[in-house]
Amino acid sequence: MKLLRDYCIAQVVGLVFLFSLACPTNAQSVADQIGLTQLRAENPNLTEGAGITAHLVEAGTAYYPDTSLARFAGTTFENQGPSSTVSGHSTGSATILLGSSSLSVATDLGTAGNPPVQVYSAALSSGEDWVNGVINNFSPFTGFRDPDTSLFDRSTVSSHSYILNNPTGGVLDIDLLQRLDFVINETDTTVVTGSANTTTLPPGWAPAFNNLLVGQTRGTHGQGLTTTYGSGRVAVDVVVPITTSSAATPYVAGSVAILQDAADGSDAATSEVIRATIMAGATKDEPTSAGDRSGTQPLDSISGAGELNILNSYNIQQGGEFDGGAITPVALTSFYGWDYEGSLEINGQRLYEFEVTAGNQLEDLSVVLAWNQNIVDTNTSPFQFAPVEELANLSLELLDSSGTVVDSSLSAVDNVEHVFQNVLAAGTYQLRVSNDNALASDYGLAWRGDLVAVFLLGDVNLDGVVNFLDIAPFITLLTDGDYQAEADCNQDGVVNFLDIAEFIAILNGG
């Protein structure tokens, strides 16, 4: 009997990857574009992956980074396979994920006092690898067992810069995806996988529910909707301004390690909250909009939630947790924040309320709701994995003070919902998370938005409108000779009698 499955591993164009390390999509460095440079400048005592275990998983029999390089001095690697043959591709991935180069993201991974970096081959004929040795948990005596969850927790991140092809297809592909989702949901680990360097959605990990799938900002990566294992879902979650998916993946994995480190084991490090925080922090300047996101399709089919921005994601986490109210909404005191709900009951809801104060508007509101597909192992024996899929149907809505729905995300197939508004005017708003079917679920919710003062000529009392209430403060400014830009109605740099006619015209709607 053939115990080892016949998996074929294809690296994602290693030579192009190595060249692209220094080639972001524009003249700025990748660190600048993803907010890492600013994050470090604003947080000089920031640790980057301290206490976090990283899995560096690479393709083929040559899967080991060149640990003799100066950039890896002080970093401890542990080989989890039978070979230590150096791979240029693996060296490039490791250079971005960790180390001390100008490209490195999570610089504390594997350093003194921290867990060693675990280096795996993705799949080998011997079974000493990540797929067969961990996910399939192969034993020569008992065959495939339940996945080895002992190697993961919410302080573990796995980076996968390869395409995993299974020539046998069909059921075996689904079983492997179920095993991956099982591990993520059971242990709260975060697994970051790369897409292809062509626009065809690759096989392997891409259709998984609970991972983070990474593409490129320029859009030349595997994309679109899944066709198996839950068809019709947007596959890519986030993109990075680099020219290969191999290089994009460790940028996200390193960013996850920074968030896990800062979360310090709290619920902010759960896989659901991490996914929501990464996606809610993503920007839509590059690409330029929310794309083809709709009320029933939560993410853009090419760029997912947008371009990675670790500064936004870190600020979301630092904004604090707000527990939603089942009946009375909780008041959000921060426009950057998150929540982890341990169990949203059947037909239940959680409400969150925030106010955009008069004279201001909220720009780039991005809210992401994420939950895991639950995989139930219905066989109690550790030697036979018998998975059953369970997926809750959660929804996310943004409502104004009258109860009118401003934006909604109501996908019936995805395990993520997303609302985005370029501008919200002054007013009171609610976020509503609802459970729309007979399956309770935990979830992670993350949001961000920037409160920006609105300049309105004639709005002297700064309440966001021009009306008779502005007359008295306008007269006071005329009398006292003080300057206020809103009262300078003819915009000549002073507030005096010459502004009266213009002020009256504005009051009258002129």
Q: What are the defining features of this structure?
A:
single chain, 510 residues, alpha/beta, Rossmann fold, Jelly Rolls, 3 domains, seven-stranded parallel beta sheet, five-stranded mixed beta sheet, 11 helices, 22 strands, 21% helix
Task: Please provide a written account of the structure.
With 510 residues, the protein is α/β, with parallel strands linked by helices. The chain has 3 domains: 8-318, Peptidase S8/S53 domain (Rossmann fold, 3-Layer(aba) Sandwich), CATH 3.40.50; 330-453, Jelly Rolls (Sandwich); 468-507, no CATH class. Helices cover 21% and strands 25% of the residues. It contains 11 helices and 22 strands. The protein has helices at residues 14-20, 30-33, 36-42, 88-97, 130-135, 171-187, 245-263, 271-281, 310-318, 471-480, 500-507; strands at residues 8-11, 53-58, 77-79, 117-121, 138-139, 143-144, 156-160, 162-165, 190-194, 212-216, 238-240, 330-331, 336-344, 349-356, 360-370, 374-377, 387-390, 394-400, 405-409, 416-424, 427-435, 441-453. It has a 7-stranded parallel beta sheet. It has a 5-stranded mixed beta sheet with strand order 12-14-21-18-19, with no helix packed on it. It has a 4-stranded antiparallel beta sheet with strand order 13-22-15-20. A hairpin with a 4-residue loop joins strand 18 (394-400) and strand 19 (405-409). Helix 4 (88-97) runs parallel beside helix 7, helix 7 (245-263) packs parallel to helix 9 (310-318) and helix 8 packs across helix 9 (310-318). The longest helix is centred in the middle third of the chain and has 19 residues, at 245-263. Mean pLDDT is 91; it is low at 1-23.
